[in-house]
Design a protein that fits this description.
The chain has helices at 14-23, 50-55, 57-67, 84-90, 98-106, 123-133, 155-173, 189-196, 203-217; strands at 4-9, 34-39, 73-76, 95-97, 113-117, 139-144, 177-180, 200-201. The chain is α/β, with parallel strands linked by helices. The strands form 2 sheets. The protein has a 4-stranded parallel beta sheet with strand order 2-1-3-4, sandwiched between helices. A 4-stranded parallel beta sheet has the order 6-5-7-8.
Length: 222
Amino acid sequence: MGNRIAVINPNSSTTVTDDIDRALEPLRTSGGETIDCLTLADGPPGIESQTDVDGVVMPLCDLVKAQDNTAAAFVIACFSDPGLHAVRETTDKPVFGIAESGLLTAMTLGDRVGLIAILASGAARHARYIRALGIESRFAGEAAVGLGVTELADEARTLARMIETGQQLRDDHGANVLVMGCAGMARYRGTLEDTLGLPVVDPTQAAVGMAISAVRLGYRTT
């Protein structure tokens, strides 16, 4: 099996996978775990609806089964955490969803968590997940940049929208820590922190950090 962590992008965009791969470079160390980023070829170009979320569950499970003998842990790199519980039933290896990991990490850095989402249409889906996690009392609110997954490649426009939504969450909702609500946003984290004066969590980095800890400490799964 070795110490390989498989990070799966559940959409079919290799550009997003490349962005995820670059974001994880700070977690790669000499002699450390191999972090391998994979693309779900059967996924949609972007996961932007509940239908998209539901549609990738079985292909994700199939990919995890195919990778199970060579991976020590799995990360589902989509903020909707598609198929998280189904995948956990598919393997006895630790499985991390980036939304769950990012939100839990944020709560160690501040009292009021704000979410920078990509599209306003995801708000109801995210609210259901916040309730399921039982963290409503720590959730300040959500604001969307109004860009789909494939549009995030426009760096100038994306950064400007992220700063605007971050300011809204800080000033209008009282957020004192922010989570970026998409796997492809990591490149903006440092600039956002410097501009807004708040800690900013990239959820994929948070999830992979948890996966590394789980592998090194030999955590059991249930």
